[in-house]
Write a structure and sequence with these properties.
The complex is a heterodimer. By secondary structure, chain A is of the alpha+beta class. Chain A has helices at about 40-45, 50-55, 100-105; strands spanning about 5-10, 15-25, 25-35, 65-70, 75-80, 105-110. Chain A has one domain: Alpha-Beta Plaits, CATH 3.30.70. By secondary structure, chain B is of the alpha+beta class. Chain B has helices spanning about 25-30, 45-55, 65-80, 95-105, 130-135, 165-170, 185-195, 205-215, 265-275, 345-360, 380-385, 405-415, 420; strands spanning about 10-15, 35-40, 85, 115-120, 155-160, 175-180, 245, 255, 285, 290, 295-300, 305-310, 310-315, 320-340, 365-375, 395-405, 425-430, 440-450, 455-460. Chains A and B meet through strand 2, strand 3, strand 4, strand 5 and helix 3 of A and helix 9, strand 14, strand 15, helix 11 and strand 16 of B.
Chain lengths: ~110, ~450
């Protein structure tokens, strides 16, 4: 029998804060570790592929990720996220303002 | 230069983060403590097309009209305290804006006491055909399509100018600089360049001033507004202090706000603003330089004071971004509110009925988008995971349509109200009446060779 898991699942909300905005039909989400020691966890687990899976059905294009270790932050570009973006978009969130907290719904594993 | 704080620093205060921002902010910035410059950003991506339309109706218009009464309120204070202004309120008619401000200043008894700098040269609308004919395709940066595809629908075209024409105006003695499409960051960078005499190839310094501009260009969004970290503990947002950059000649700067004002300036809040609307953080491209945001160092230097250092920059490119607006088509959004019990299912049923009727009418739309506000409008399917949708007390059905066919959109707007009496039950919230079809003016970002654009600086004596 296996021992008790050394990890537990937690919402990203407990480890990071975020702000999002738009560039055309692309939403950007800046994800910032609440403490510097959380940053490596974000780098390891919040990958572009993971974020693309998280937003499946909400975005039509790929996800790019950039690292800002100096700010303990990751920047995600979610392409095709805004129904054409700007004035074309019919979405309530035409400017991608709350993709930030949508990303914080992601569950990740943290050491106990 | 002698600054408001007496030392070798220059204080640039943000007064407006966008056209429509808090009208009290500029007044509080010029009265709440010492500053050297008030920076006000007015222009969003499609603002220029709205202004171009106003100018075509009246050649004396085409600028941010509420800038003039705002200036009337603060001009006497600016004159007394020696505060200068940089603002891109000029839109597509900076000269008319400057004339209106000059007349206001004269009325306030400031004749002979004020010089207004006017920056133009960004407006390319009259030159689009010439540029296309000379092989400048003005391709859409997002889609790669050449502008010739939509040429007959172009409503405005403006190159983003950088800080240098604003610096020229300040060097010529302007107290208020009114510009057309100057970058948001350039409005902050220019006063700092002017104060410290930075060179055109001092890339690290220009990048630092650009980061300073990015930090305060959205006003209170870096001083406690729209900040997620401990948001309920941010004090006194009713009296939120807008940010002030305190820049030094070595390219370091601090972000602060007036004492006694509300809000909060912390590393966390400034970081949120730094990543806002960010693309590749290592290459933040402006007309003035390329700033590398991965080199920024932040530290809390006191209460409501964040120190920024370490910024590195690279040479500017030989292109300017061009903001083009073109007519795209029509859209309309209709809403109805459904109440418990089974609010969500009723709203879903109403959407099915509506879509069937639109299809039966043979109406053609480029897009029909349905959202259920209160359920999935902001977070999509992520929001419904683990939610008992049958318990939702109310749901707003929100349906939007988009089409090149104005008649189709018009007809859609007449298909919402009937659902109140001939669709699913427990529905309300139609007091606003029939939705109005709107023209869509869309944004077309492009690049143009820098050498094709000649900024122009004039001075208006009051």
């Amino acid at each position: 029998m296996k021992g008790r898991s050394k990890k537990r699942r937690q919402l990203l909300l407990a480890l990071a804060h975020a702000r999002s905005g738009d560039k055309g039909d692309t939403a950007n989400v800046g994800l910032i570790a609440l403490k510097p020691e959380y940053y490596p966890i974000l780098v390891k687990q919040v990958t572009a592929a993971r974020v693309a899976r998280h937003f499946k059905g909400m975005i039509t294009g790929p996800v790019e990720r950039y690292e800002l270790p100096n700010l303990h932050a990751l920047n995600f570009l979610l392409h095709g996220a805004l129904d054409g973006g700007g004035t074309i978009s019919l979405k309530t969130d035409a400017q991608g303002k709350v993709f930030s907290t949508a990303l914080l719904r992601l569950e990740i594993e943290v050491p106990r | 230069m002698k600054s408001a704080t007496g030392g070798r620093t220059v204080r640039v205060a943000a007064g407006q983060g966008f056209w429509g921002d808090w009208l009290e902010a500029p007044y509080r910035q010029v009265t709440g403590g010492p500053i050297d410059y008030l920076m006000m950003d007015y222009l969003a991506e499609v603002t220029m097309s709205i202004l171009q339309k106003q100018k075509s109706r009246d050649p004396a218009l085409g600028y941010a009209k509420d800038f003039v009464p705002l200036m009337a309120r603060i001009l006497p204070i600016l004159a007394t305290r020696g505060i200068k202004v940089t603002a891109n309120a000029g839109g597509v008619n900076p000269r008319a804006c400057a004339q209106a401000v000059a007349e206001t200043a004269r009325r306030l008894g400031l004749a002979g006491k004020l010089r207004i700098g006017v920056v133009t040269g960004d407006d390319l609308l009259g030159r689009v055909d010439g540029l296309l004919a000379r092989g400048h395709a003005l391709r859409n940066l997002d889609t790669g399509r050449p502008l010739s595809d939509v040429r007959d629908r172009v409503l405005s075209a403006n190159a983003y100018l950088g800080a240098w024409p604003v610096v020229d105006a300040l060097r010529q003695g302007a107290d208020v600089v009114i510009t057309g499409r100057v970058t948001d960051t350039g409005l902050t960078l220019a006063p700092v360049i002017h104060a410290f005499g930075w060179r055109t190839d001092a890339w690290d310094l220009l990048a630092a001033g650009t980061v300073a501009g990015h930090t305060i260009e959205c006003g209170a969004q870096c001083s406690g507004g729209n900040c997620l970290v401990d948001w309920e503990k941010i004090p006194d947002l009713a009296n939120v202090g807008y940010p002030i950059v305190e820049a030094r000649p070595d390219g370091t700067f601090e972000i602060t706000k007036h004492p006694g004002s509300g809000g909060r300036i912390t590393v966390a809040g400034v970081t949120e603003q730094l990543v806002y609307e960010m693309g590749n953080p290592a290459e933040y491209i402006t007309p003035d330089c390329i700033a590398d945001f991965t080199t920024i160092r932040l530290e809390q230097a006191g209460q409501d004071r964040v120190r920024v250092s370490g910024v590195r920059g690279k040479p500017a490119t030989d292109k300017l971004k061009v903001s083009i607006a073109y007519f795209y088509g029509y859209k309309a959004v209709g809403t109805l509110v459904y109440a418990w019990p089974e609010a969500y299912r009723k709203a879903q049923a109403a959407d099915r009925v509506l879509r069937q009727r639109l299809a039966d009418l043979g109406l053609k739309f480029e897009a029909i988008l349905t959202e259920f506000v209160g359920a999935d409008a902001t977070h999509g399917p992520l929001a419904l995971r683990g939610t008992r949708v049958e318990d939702l007390p109310e749901v707003q059905l929100r349906v939007g349509v988009r089409s090149p066919d104005q008649a189709a959109v018009e007809r859609f707007t007449r298909e919402i109200a009937p659902l109140i009496l001939n669709g699913p039950p427990s529905v309300t919230g139609f007091a606003g009446g029939r939705p109005k079809p709107e023209e869509i003016v869309a944004y077309w970002p492009a690049l143009v060779d820098k050498k094709m654009v000649e900024p122009c600086v004039e001075l208006v004596e009051v």
